[in-house]
Amino acid sequence: MTKGWGNASKSKSPQAWDRRMTVPADAPILTADAMRAAEAACAAAGVSLSELMERAGAAVADVAWRMAAGAPVLILCGPGNNGGDGYVAARLLKARGAKVRVAALAPPATDLARAARAAWDGPVEAFAPDTAPAPLIVDALFGVGLTRPLSDEWSAMLRRFAGRRVLAVDVPSGIESDGLQDWLPPLPAAVTLALGALKPAHLLLPTAPACGRVLLAPIGIDAERRMRTLPPLPPETPTADAHKFSRGMVLVRAGPMKGAAGLSAAAALRAGAGYVVLEDGGPAPLSAIIAEAPAAFRARLDDPRVGAIVVGPGFPAGDALAAAVGEVLDAGKPLVLDAAAIGAALPRLGKGTAAAILTPHEGEFARAFPDLRGSKIERALAAARRAQAVVIYKGADTVIAAPDGRVVAAWPGSPWLATAGTGDVLAGVCGAMLARGGDAFDAAVAAVGWHIARARSIGRGLVADDLVKTAK
């Protein structure tokens, strides 16, 4: 299968990246197996699968009606229930007066799809290499649960429609919905309508960009919320009786690369910490940060007012880091562990230690957890359980996982965060959120939300220092 997306992935508008890669906030995420279980639970509660298909098809028809804006629509139907959703959408669009054609890859192969096909009173073409296009293509060929890549023949047929507006039903055909495979669709979508819940592939690389703008149709599935998308960033206003220590005291241990620790300290202060102490950082990046020599800093470790300690930014692996990590673990305070500090702390994490947030990027994750396999969500969860700590598995498709199984997927982030020092900033923000007390997972989610929102507000040309300057 080709990995190119053709003209559909291109845009002349500098703002189009954010418009294309939009997902609903705080929305449930289900794997294919979890989705089938949720559908079965609906059926057991009295909502038939045929009713769910009718609702799904109605949602597809509504979005297609708006996208087509009066232009003809071609609906491509596969043999399974995804194709059944397409037949329902075709019937409802025709009833609205839309110009609809249906092309089928194969006859319906499930009872639900057969019933939906029987209710469609229009002609059905064979989807073939010479199938004529339409201004709007509705891709209802294959939904969740695809177990093998599309054939070269089917891929070539779909690529003929490159450049047309495409509405994908649940996932673009060719994508494995659980994020376990890196198959890319031959025909990426301008809009993907997720049915009942989002799927991991909507939020993980490399498939997420091919889904375009992701919309969610709440068709009546009672989706569990152990996995969800990033919630909106709540407004943060200190209470009337707040003081600097109630807002959180953060200590930042500095390694040989002083600038990294300085970024973390400044970020902690900007993110709301009331008091920040930086170890031997030389001149502090902000006047309100307390810079202390190592001996005085270590004396702070026993201060009961300390809400969180950040260690790792700018601190390469070695004996000095191992000693620093050992000291902060012995202090029993909530921790943020970044970079090489993650591997140094792993042998002791979860053995009576305080709450911890780990912030690895891809390379750091691979070094700390080299044996983990599966989707990025599955690997993040496995790492969190092993470390008994919250894991922020960084990247454009950041995943936050807790040992108890909670997951937040933070796609899309900001492409401008792909620059040196932004991870050090995130570690400091995690320190500020963790120092307030409360749940470490909630602190990590709030930190990632702050980081992304800040980056989006700055936009083009962002460097890490911009994230800790005066708030916009």
TrEMBL record:
Its EC number is 5.1.99.6. In the C-terminal section; belongs to the NnrD/CARKD family. In the N-terminal section; belongs to the NnrE/AIBP family. The gene is nnrE. Its cofactor is K(+). Keywords: ATP-binding, Isomerase, Lyase, Metal-binding, Multifunctional enzyme, NAD, NADP, Nucleotide-binding, Potassium. It comes from the Bacteria. This is NAD(P)H-hydrate epimerase. Bifunctional enzyme that catalyzes the epimerization of the S- and R-forms of NAD(P)HX and the dehydration of the S-form of NAD(P)HX at the expense of ADP, which is converted to AMP. This allows the repair of both epimers of NAD(P)HX, a damaged form of NAD(P)H that is a result of enzymatic or heat-dependent hydration. Catalyzes the epimerization of the S- and R-forms of NAD(P)HX, a damaged form of NAD(P)H that is a result of enzymatic or heat-dependent hydration. This is a prerequisite for the S-specific NAD(P)H-hydrate dehydratase to allow the repair of both epimers of NAD(P)HX. It comes from Sphingopyxis granuli. Residues 35-227 form the YjeF N-terminal domain.
